[in-house]
Amino acid sequence: MHSMTERFTDALHRIDSDRDVQPMVDLTGDDAELVKLDEHHQTSGKDGATTFWEDYRNVFGDLETTFTHTVVGEDSAALEWTSTGTLRSGKPFRYRGVTVIQGDEERLTGVRTYYDSAAFLQERGGTA
Q1: For the SnoaL-like domain, which residue ranges apply (predicted)?
Q2: 3-state helix, strand and coil shares in percent for the chain, rounded to the nearest 5
């Protein structure tokens, strides 16, 4: 999973900087499951990966993700990260989370992401 973890982080940086989801879709297996924290956003396969990552990126204006810690196992990895930038509205944000990836060196079979949603609740006028 070491090589896949590096490929995943590179692909995510492409999404951040260029809004290009294709490198991430290329890593995704046909039966992969992708799930966000709220469990209401679950997709599968390459088409699902396209939707998953486009929906993710469309929340933001500017976006930069810094990976702060990674734990890599035989068929999974946990990546801690901090993202900063602006929301679509232009409001600055900073949030942290963990993404767990599963698979092998060739394809991802699963992506689960857990994050601090306070930045988004505040955007809607609520309190954290």
Answers
A1: 7-107
A2: 35, 45, 25
110 falls within a domain: yes
Beta strands in the chain (DSSP E): 28-36, 42-44, 60-72, 76-87, 92-103, 108-115
Task: Show Cβ contacts of residue 100 under 8 Å, excluding neighbours closer than 6 positions.
Answer: 76, 77, 78, 79, 110, 111, 112, 113, 114
Domain that holds residue 112: 1-117
Task: Give 40-70 pLDDT, tens digit per residue.
Answer: 778 999 999 999 999 999 999 999 999 999 9
pTM: 0.90
Residue with tokens 């993202």, as numbered in its chain: 83
Q: Is residue 126 part of a domain?
A: no
DSSP state of 125: T
- Give, as one character, the DSSP assignment of residue 20: -
Q: What is the mean pLDDT of the chain?
A: 91
Three-state DSSP at 116 gives coil
**Rounded distance, CA 100 to CA 93, Å?**
22
